[in-house]
Amino acid sequence: MPSVLAKLRELEVATRPEHPDLTAALAKRWEELPDHVKTPNQMLGRRTAGCEGTHGVFPRCNLACTPCYHSRDANRVRTDGEHTAREVDRQMALLRAERGPGQNAQLIGGEVTLLEPDDHAAALEAMHRHGRKPMSMTHGDFDYDYLEALALDPVNGEPRFSHLSFAGHFDSMMYGRRGIKAPPDEASLNPHRAAFCEMFQRLERDHGVTHYLAHNMTVTPANIDQVPQVIRDCRDMGFRMFSFQPAAFIGNTNRWKHSYREFSTDEVWRQVEQGAGARLHFNAFQIGDVRCNRTAYGAYSGERYIPLLDEDDERDARVLASFLAAFGGMDFVARPAVLGARLARGLARHPRGLLTAAGWARRFASRGGGVRALRAEPPRAITYVMHAFMDAEKVKPAWALLERGEISEDPGIRETQERLKACSYAMAHPDTGELVPACAQHSVLDPFENQRLQEDLPLMELPMATA
Ligand code: SF4
């Protein structure tokens, strides 16, 4: 039985704005960041230690994408629930030790729904156990029965998760989807996007399991001009985040189909803004290096888009500074009593936060057309993201030099090194204790890993999509 003192200590830690392990992890992360990203709007090392993803836990996929970021051998590896559960557990344990609790982690690799529902559930449970906030990354080509079996305990039929986060990847460069093997354009996928959202809405109606859905889309010269319409068509389907990945020459070389460097990331962002119907203030917050990531937080009240913070307004920059001073990396997902205590303790260490928050609330309401307009059409949060992976031909030499502690003389490779050092998306290697940027994982490490996995987990049937 824990003593009263131990209980009190536990309560004291639980009601701190930041868990002490997270405070230490954030300080370390900040210390390691290159100077060029240590800007006042930088969230790494202040609000988050970074996003995380699994690797080598279920490499296989049953669609064929162009491009595909996974190595050619990925589809020769058997999907095996025991392997997945064991490796997810090991990788998450390292991330918990290095990055503290409460960080967002993607259950990613090949196609997650090739796992049996119970194996998928076991992987999510392992992630929760290690203090991660998991999101399952899928192509979305699965049925309600699968989702229900994932969400419910097979023994008693009760929900085993109160909430599920999924990212559905939908774009016209994905081949083999049931009902639309080769989509002629983005619009033809809209019924599939809607069906994906409807499954989660039904799960909530039937069983009370809530959800957070993101929409992922690879952008190439073939679909860049369709980005605005995708956003317009899908904004009200139920997605809370739209994430765009300009295609990169990374992963399976057989799947490189277009000249991906025909347009700049600025051009992609312009298309996203066109679809959003507003300027998107990605400079208000930065996560890692701006050449890798842009994130715009905001909300719609009816058709009107309201940025969470205006990047041109100094007062909003002060609100962000105040928020970080009060709450830092605080996890706002907690029981009401714990959340209340955390908020009170955060404000106690930075009381001026209350004043700046009041000013921000007034400005937000006025940008939204006034309190009456916001009451009539309550704001719905939507986040727009762009994540630009790098080409393998640059990542390989850049990573090799970084591993030796050397900085390249070549400006292009040096830029790649700067981005890798400021990486916001890490994958864990429990054997070496290393955390590796996803670009390096896909460009350098995946091929070896999948060759080894192919021997450990050989296919028992013919591969489905090996091109
Ligand atoms: S280094 Fe690569 S994986 Fe990391 S944030 Fe940049 S693009 Fe993403």
Q: Helical percent range?
A: 40-55%
Largest sheet: 11 strands, mixed
Report the span from N to C terminus.
Answer: 58 Å
Which range does the strand content fall in?
15-25%
* Spans where pLDDT lies below 50 across 5 or more residues: none
Encode the helix/strand succession as letters.
Answer: HHEEHEHEHEEHEHEHEEHHHHEHHEEH
Give a count of the beta strands, DSSP E runs of length 2 or more: 13
Estimated radius of gyration: 22 Å
Structural class: alpha/beta
Bound molecules: iron/sulfur cluster
Mean pLDDT: 95
Number of helices: 15
Assembly classification: single chain
Give the strand order of the largest sheet, numbering strands 1, 2, ... along the chain.
10-9-11-8-7-5-4-3-1-12-13
Shape: globular
Task: Walk me through the structure.
The protein is an alpha/beta fold and 467 residues long. The chain is built from 15 helices and 13 strands. It has helices at residues 4-14, 20-32, 81-99, 117-129, 144-151, 190-207, 227-234, 265-276, 314-327, 336-349, 352-367, 371-376, 392-403, 411-421, 438-456; strands spanning 51-53, 64-65, 103-107, 132-138, 163-169, 174-175, 210-219, 241-246, 293-301, 304-307, 380-387, 425-429, 434-437. Strands 10-9-11-8-7-5-4-3-1-12-13 form an eleven-stranded mixed beta sheet. A two-stranded antiparallel sheet has the order 2-6. β3, α4 and β4 form a beta-alpha-beta unit. The chain is globular, with a radius of gyration of 22 Å. The structure holds iron/sulfur cluster. The site of iron/sulfur cluster has 15 residues, from α14 and α15. Iron/sulfur cluster binds at residues 288, 292-293, 387-390, 419-420, 423-425, 437-439.
